[in-house]
Design brief:
Blueprint (H helix, E strand, L loop, with lengths): L2 H13 L11 H7 L1 E5 L2 H6 L2 H22 L4 E8 L4 E8 L11 E4 L3 H9 L8 H6 L4 H9 L2 E8 L7
Parallel strand pairs: 4-5
Antiparallel strand pairs: 1-3, 2-3, 2-5
Helix pairs in contact: 1-4
Amino acid sequence: MNKNEFMEELKEIVEDPLFIGNSIEDLTDEAAENTWSISMGQELANDFTMEELVSFFTQVQTNRKEQIVHTSDHPMIFYAWFDWQSASLRFSLMSAFQEKLPFGSKYKTIASIEPIIVEFLQFQFHDGFPFTEIHDEVPTETEEKEKVNEPFNVYVVILSNDRETL
């Protein structure tokens, strides 16, 4: 797939409908329906700029904000992160019934998506982890525990349902 074809697929994501729950009991359904993942091979990742991906995420947030304003009686949380294990940018939305994001490990919220996009674009293993890299760099138990305990960055923004902020 070339960059233009990939950009067309991203446009489809921008327009995807949003599932908006009515209570805290709907958070599991929201997680299932409102989570997207973007991955690409190394060659394609090398063709993208941070500005292009920032523009994509701005369009997504604008679209989701419009959907929230027109169909929801409550705000939603938009959050995005780089999942290095799958070499993908991931983002999701959930109703702002609770403030804790649904992650089982430590994370750090950040106010800008740029560091996450930079981490994604600079990642060297978009085509997968070579076996030699894994085999040659087996961490010690102490190193493994330290790495697991490092929080990962999550970009978080509240998308209001207030029509005045459109």
